[in-house]
Amino acid sequence: MLKLQVEGLSMQIRSFLYELEQRSHVALQQQENGYQIKDGKVTSCTKCEIQYSLQDRVQTLEMVTLDGDTIKIPLLDVMCVQMDKHTRIVSGKSYDIFANKKGHATWPK
Hints:
There is one protein chain. This protein is 11% helix and 53% strand. It contains one helix and six strands. The strands form two sheets. A three-stranded antiparallel beta sheet has the order 1-3-2, with helices on one face. A three-stranded antiparallel beta sheet has the order 4-5-6, with no helix packed on it. Strand 5 and strand 6 form a beta hairpin. The N and C termini lie far apart (43 Å).
């Protein structure tokens, strides 16, 4: 369990916590919103507890083709956003363990 305190504009805090919560290995457990006075200025302040699980960083994306074949793609640091009833955007990192460490032949030098 991690404890996090974020200070700044309330809209920026909400955006930051929303993006943080989209990550599959992070779960916001408890959140406390308030205000803080520093050097005569009032700023928004949010304290929260975060469950951080490294085991959940890799997820397998499964897609089924029209022919019924299943395509499995392991992804690291997956983010998934449901746009509407039929549309979901999935983002993550994919890697090739067999790739040349110097990079692919098509990469710029």
